[in-house]
Amino acid sequence: MHGELTALLSATCYAVSNLLIRKGQDDTLPSDYGLFPVLLITGVILSITLTIDVSYDRGPLMDKGLAGTMGILFCALSGLLATLFGRLALYTAISRIGATRGSIIAAMSPLVTLTVALVILRERLTLFDKTGIGVLLVGVFLLLFEQKLFPTRFAPSDVVKSGIAIAVWATLFQGVGYAFRKVGILYPIDSLFAGVVDTWAALLLYIVFLSLTGRLVPLLRHYWSHMNLSIVSAGVVMSAAVYLFFEAVSDVPVSTVSVIMGTQPVIVALLAGLFMNKLERLTIATWLSSLIVCVGVILLGI
């Protein structure tokens, strides 16, 4: 029960972070949609927490030798896929279609995990799997046709379609990256240390990319003069989400964790309806899609 509760707390933190990013994007229009400060703040907070934890001599952070090296490698890979590419795609989608709609698409990541199991592990689909896939598709199709059902929707059709397409990429990256997180923990490696490796691998590669493309200095200047509380808060909450995710997968199967992560659309929709109703502009179709997608994700986990 501890792992399931930890996963639910992680999902809640991810949902809150996504909403804060949406607010920060609306306030300052950052060119990278808020990714750089979120990665930096998350990495710094996790590193400070790890330093304090180590000072109390809580034991080794990882196994010595090849096992420890492999654990670090897979955690770094999860950082590149889920934290860097997955977050960048999700934040881009959030800027175009909102936090709720972006979370609905990203909630299909368990379907990616299932696909990997079918191809690599030769597993077979159960009746619940088939039903869950069908329900997931219904929820996503409802989101795709939301504009026709509600013509006064907040964004033009081409922007909405491109945002959904980018959210699909976020689903793919996060689905595979989350699986790598579980593999890394199995070697084993301390969950807090794993979060540090994950986040800093993402941040360092992102810094290299920004430097090579000549965007690092302009981006730093932008955030220096336009930093806002929403983006800072998103980074703080994200640090908790990353740590809690690693803590959860160290206790229960990643398939269970990914299913609980699939509840994010409902959490985001509830919070957006309470605190950001004008910014998100949810429709009945959005609420139904959130609920349907969550039901589909749960069926995949049975």
Could you tell me the mean pLDDT? Answer: 82
Low-confidence stretches: none
User: Roughly how many Å is the radius of gyration?
Assistant: 19 Å
Q: Globular, elongated, flat, extended or rod-shaped: what is the shape?
A: globular
Number of helices: 15
The percentage helix is over 70%
The domain count comes to 1
Q: What is the string of SSEs from the N terminus onward?
A: HHHHHHHHHHHHHHH
Would you tell me the structural class of the helices and strands? mainly alpha
- Strand fraction band? under 5%
Report the end-to-end length measured between terminal Cα atoms.
16 Å
Query: How is the biggest beta sheet arranged?
Result: none
Q: Based on DSSP secondary structure assignment, what is the total number of beta strands?
A: 0
Secondary structure topology:
Layout: H1 2-28, H2 35-55, H3 66-97, H4 99-106, H5 109-120, H6 127-144, H7 146-149, H8 157-185, H9 191-212, H10 216-226, H11 229-249, H12 254-261, H13 264-275, H14 277-280, H15 284-301
Helix pairs in contact: 1-11, 1-12, 1-13, 2-9, 2-11, 3-4, 3-8, 3-9, 4-8, 4-13, 5-8, 6-15, 9-11, 12-15, 13-15
